[in-house]
Amino acid sequence: MDYGHSIHVTNTSRSINLPHRDLLEDIQEYNKTCRPLMKASFMGDWQAAKAIIDERQELVVFSITANQETLLHLAASAENTKQTQEFLQNLVNMLEMNDLKLEDLSSWNAFQIAVANGSMEMVDIMLQKNQALLSIPNMKNGFTLSISAFFGHHDLTRHLYQLSEGTIDTYMTTTDLNSFVHRCIRSEMFDITLKLLTRFPYKMTHLTYMIILDELARRPDSLNRPKQNMIRKMVDPFLVKLHMKKGPSENDDPALNLLKKVLNICTTFKLDDQLRILKGPSNSQNNYKHPSGVLFVAVEMGNTAFLIELFQVYPHLLTARNVNDDSIFHVAVMHRHLGIYNLLYEIGKRRLLSTTHTNAQGNTILHVVAQSSKEIQPQTTSGASLLMQRELLWFQDVEKMLPRALRENKNDNGQTAYQIFFDDNKDLISNGLKWTKDCMVTTTLIVTVAFAVAFTVPGGYNQETGFPIFLHETGFLVFVIADAISLFSSSTSLLVFLSILTSRYGQRDFLHSLPRKLMLGLLTLFISVVAMMVTFAASFFVLYNNGLKWVPIVISILAAIPVMLFALLQLPVWSDMFRSTFDSRYLFNPRRRRMLYNKSRV
């Protein structure tokens, strides 16, 4: 069996340590012995296997498959259950230490197979018998540590590294160590990578440092802590003081600590070597010609934390340009990465160099923000209004950044930023109005129902007096009030949406005026839906007041389902619109300054 892709390992001239293949020569013996053993190993049936082994003890070191795998190979590749673990333990007890080193035709021994499968219990069973298994390389896939890292078994890799930490450099060459680091960083094992760099900083090649920086630049989620909501921010400090929760620790950010370590080590190299490392690995997917490949990778990925650390060591990169002569802030605006864009507020006079710069196509940063971002296209028509509002917020803030003399500049195509913004956002306006029409259909239906129900009361009217039969029932009072609320709120919603459609709205109206009307329309629409369901449920309480009281209760519960569904589906839209309208002033130029913090270096 072939477990994974090959990496470059130390070239060994040894031959594969194959088991005896006597059982494979005779087909009758193969069917009689090998097939039952295979079945027993996969099922974890030790009694069935032992009955065959007791007749011939040497079978435990014989090949029983065409790939020359032994019973131990098959046991190690079985599903990791308590039964298969007991099977493996009994089998290992019968073997000599050297028997665990036997390999199949692909040069895999049983220990390496268990490592590839991530079976920690099976790995420990075999290590108890022979600790030297850690230092036996697979001829194509390297040492067991590299195999475990390649398959992404983080806990197992950490466990094996702890066992071999003191001796790893006695059997791994510099090439092997670098290969191991490559696999760790690509599997996001930042803590293990950090330990290796701390212990062997100068055994790592420049290519290794390039790969580490490139991988960290591509992983913003690993470096940027998720934002806490307001409640968590208030509660967490008290929990820490009461020892109910641990405070933030350096160990909580292994990726960030690794980045700091790499940058610190790089500063000890010659300047030419540092620049070569910052340029990043050259391959078909990352063939950068500008000064720092990893810099623009981080910008495109929105990796703000990576950039802050990089700028603290290499501040000259703030004015770097890519092959299109875009600054980092041109690229950040192009991809709408707010965290990176807000760094403009922290770099003083350097801000003018970036905001007044024009790229190879003659575009200022205002031209760039005027172009609709492909990364944040609306997935539904309901998101079009929100997106139009967000695009306007971006455009207005960048407009303030740019000197007035440059705002009307034309690019090489003869377009101003305002022309580009108008042309690129036409579809957002039409989609936003289409969604408004869809909301009107629902609102109109509710108005019709609520109006009809007002004259079709439960139980009907008294033929003599003309008053409703259940006029003095509490349930009837609830019915009337809820129906009135439903009618008035749905009518309000209808009028709001109608005013949106009949009025002429420009693009800048999407910033405040239109979102507020949409919020009012959605809120009154939700109230009308709730009131309509209450009206529906109340009518059953009136009709079944004297018997079968479980009927209105069940119906009331069922009536709550569409209300909850409507709330779950529309509440995110409403809250996003609320934040964009009333909380948008905190999006740009935040009070917290990230680059000015005194960050300790590892």
Report a brief summary of the structure:
By secondary structure, this protein is an all-alpha fold.
Largest sheet: none
Output the CATH class name of the largest domain: Mainly Alpha
The termini sit apart by 43 Å
CATH architecture of the largest domain: Alpha Horseshoe
Order of helices and strands: HHHHHHHHHHHHHHHHHHHHHHHHHHHHHH
Number of strands: 0
Kindly give the count of domains.
3
Low-confidence runs of at least 5 consecutive residues: 1-12, 245-250, 284-289, 598-602
Summarize model confidence as the mean pLDDT: 81
In percent, how helical is the residue content?
Answer: 55-70%
Count of alpha/pi helices: 30
Could you tell me the radius of gyration in angstroms? 35 Å
Structural write-up:
This protein has 30 helices and no strands. With 602 residues, the protein is mainly α. It folds into three domains: 181 residues, Ankyrin repeat-containing domain (Serine Threonine Protein Phosphatase 5, Tetratricopeptide repeat); 197 residues, Ankyrin repeat-containing domain (Serine Threonine Protein Phosphatase 5, Tetratricopeptide repeat, Alpha Horseshoe); 158 residues, no CATH class. Helix 4 runs parallel beside helix 6. The two termini are 43 Å apart. 37% of the residues are buried. The N terminus and C terminus are likely disordered.
